[in-house]
Amino acid sequence: MLRRILLSLLAILPFTNFLHAQTFEGLMEFKKQSGKEVTNYVYYIKGDKVRIDEFAPDSRIVSGSFIVDTKAMTMIYLLPDRKMWGTRTSKSGIAAPAGAVVTATKKTKDLFGYKCAEQVVKCAADTTQISFWIAPGKFNFFLPMLKLINRQENFSTYYLAIANLKAGSMPLLAIESNLNGVERGRLEVTRLEAKAIADNMFDVPKDYTKVE
Questions:
Q1: Please, what is the end-to-end C-alpha distance for the chain in angstroms?
Q2: How much is the pLDDT for 96?
Q3: What are φ and ψ of residue 22, in 5° steps?
Q4: Which residues are CB-contacts of 211 (< 8 A; sequence separation ≥ 6)?
Q5: Could you report the per-residue pLDDT of 64-75, keeping only the tens digit for each?
């Protein structure tokens, strides 16, 4: 009986390792550009947790951080310059713009080794369209994080208009333009590195004071 159980476990292990390998762990750097304004971010991803560091303009100094746990449905913000932290609750649900039309084109881009397919979301009422270049696969954190953070901005709300999103998919490039194709802004991954992330990246520093 014991031998049979051990053999069963050995048979399961490769499959569980395969599943683990399909979930991204590592870091991503993003650049968000709107006109002349540029903001840079780093995401640290491990399991259900994501830490987002935002840099001050034209520097590598972290101006603020956000720690998201999509399983516990919690959000923590950190203010490094003040050594303070607090919690945030998600408000009303994020929603796609009314009347948005989604078109899956046949165009693809190779970004960081992922074959990204283009989906264009257009809203005539807003005179806006966004082209999302979506990587398939193992970014399971992304959609739950997007819904939990609940940012009411076009890059988020337009993405949710895509009804046939596959589990684990994520845009590595998004370009916003007017209906004539004149670019207004973009959000793009500038670095993507799979690596082990330490658990303490998602802890509040002990010398930080909680904001009540």
A1: 56
A2: 80
A3: -85, -5
A4: 84, 85, 86
A5: 999 999 999 999
Phi-psi region of 129 (alpha: psi -120 to 50; beta: other; left: phi over 0): beta
* pLDDT at residue 209 is higher than 60: yes
Which H helix or E strand runs over 16? helix 2-21
CA 153 to CA 173: how far, in whole Å? 16
In whole angstroms, give the CA distance from residue 208 to residue 205.
Answer: 6
Q: What is the pLDDT of residue 117?
A: 96
CA distance 158 to 75: 23
Q: Which amino acid is at 114?
A: Y
Q: In what order do the strands lie in the sheet with 74-79?
A: 101-111, 114-123, 128-135, 170-177, 183-194, 26-34, 37-46, 49-55, 62-69, 74-79, 84-88, 209-210
Beta bridge partners, 54, equal 41, 64
Phi, psi of 192 (to 5 degrees): -140, 115
- At 111-147, the pLDDT tens digits run 999 999 999 999 999 999 999 999 997 899 999 999 8
Instruction: Say if residue 15's pLDDT is above 50.
Output: no
